[in-house]
Design a protein that fits this description.
Elements: H1 2-9, H2 13-16, E1 27-29, E2 48-53, H3 70-95, E3 116-122, E4 136-139, E5 145-150, E6 157-161, E7 166-169, E8 177-181, H4 183-188, E9 198-200, E10 211-218, H5 259-270
Antiparallel strand pairs: 1-2, 2-3, 3-10, 4-9, 5-8, 5-10, 6-7, 6-9
This protein binds 2-oxoglutaric acid and fe (ii) ion.
The site of 2-oxoglutaric acid has 11 residues, from strand 3, strand 5, strand 9 and strand 10.
Pfam families: 2OG-FeII_Oxy, DIOX_N
Keywords: Iron, Metal-binding, Oxidoreductase
InterPro entries: DIOX_N (IPR026992), IPNS-like_FE2OG_OXY (IPR044861), IPNS-like_sf (IPR027443), Iron_ascorbate_oxido_reductase (IPR050231), Oxoglu/Fe-dep_dioxygenase_dom (IPR005123)
């Protein structure tokens, strides 16, 4: 997948612009088009991305992905990531002492799924670089969990420790998958499981190395409500909304959203289409 990603991002810009990001969150995101930290309107992220939604046909992808076996590779990767996420969510359900299929039944493997494979590329240097340059602004992810693959031990990923209020480096290892718990889990568990606030910073050097990563965003099915799970641990629990609320939209209101509504609100805040 990383080989494919490298080949893709080195295609000429006009080639990549043929599949620009669409409303359904599929396609190419050019450098400076997305700002993951919606509380900071001044800086845009210095990254390119290619989002691959749950596929129905090969034509939705650039020609490179239709070459010998690449389409099959992407599909296989998608299915493997989905399966791993379902395994993790099953253990989580067991931990909360609810029906072990509770989360599984809320993440259907079908065409309507909003799951995304996201190839990410952070160029070595950029004409867009300014004093406030950041590779990916502070944010939490919008679904239930995210699998994050980093490549060639290039650092930069940091998670925010909400207790000590410190940013902590996530040291990359080639064979390691970072698992981010995301917004839906925070809603479902009244903040028992926190949505991980994270960012990617620029290495402290004049011409930083380029960096590749791949994320798999596991999303609840669109109509699933982000309401507390029927676990005994939720009964007397009060949902404490800490300052992280500014990263998670609509914490101010008590209206229970569907996963699809929440995703749309968050995407609208981060993209300049
Ligand atoms: O590139 C990374 O390591 C993180 C990317 C990320 O957090 C995102 O795209 O949501
Ligand atoms: Fe993220």
């Amino acid at each position: 997948m990383f080989e494919l990603s490298k080949r893709y991002f080195h295609l000429p810009l006009e080639e990549k612009l043929k599949h620009q990001i669409q409303e359904k969150n599929h396609g190419y995101v050019r450098a400076g088009q997305e700002n993951l930290d919606s509380t900071d309107q001044k800086s845009m992220d210095l990254k390119e991305a290619f989002n691959i939604s749950r596929l129905t046909n090969e034509e939705d992808l650039p020609a490179l992905f239709q070459e010998n076996g690449n389409f099959r590779l992407v599909n296989q990767f998608q299915f493997d990531c989905y399966s791993l996420c379902m395994k993790l969510l099953k253990y989580l359900a067991i931990g909360f002492e609810i029906d072990e299929d509770y989360f599984l039944s809320r993440h259907k493997w079908d065409e309507d799924s909003s799951d995304i494979i996201r190839l990410l590329y952070y160029p070595s240097s950029s004409s867009l670089t300014t004093e406030k340059s950041i590779r990916a602004g502070a944010h939490s992810d919008y679904g239930s969990i995210t699998l994050l693959f980093q490549h060639e031990e290039k650092g930069g990923l940091q998670v925010f420790d909400r207790v000590t209020k410190q940013w902590c480096d996530v040291k990359p290892y080639n064979e390691m998958i970072v698992v981010n718990t995301a917004d839906a889990l925070e809603y479902w568990t009244k903040g028992f499981v926190k949505s991980t606030v994270h960012r990617v910073i620029m290495p402290d050097q004049l011409s930083p190395d380029e960096r590749y990563s791949i994320a798999y965003f596991c999303q609840p099915s669109n109509t699933v409500l982000l309401e507390p799970i029927p676990s005994k641990y939720m009964i007397n629990r009060v949902f404490e909304k800490d300052e992280h609320a500014k990263h998670v939209l609509n914490h101010e209101s008590d209206k229970i959203l569907t996963a699809g509504e929440h995703l749309r609100l968050r995407l609208n805040k981060t993209y300049a289409y």
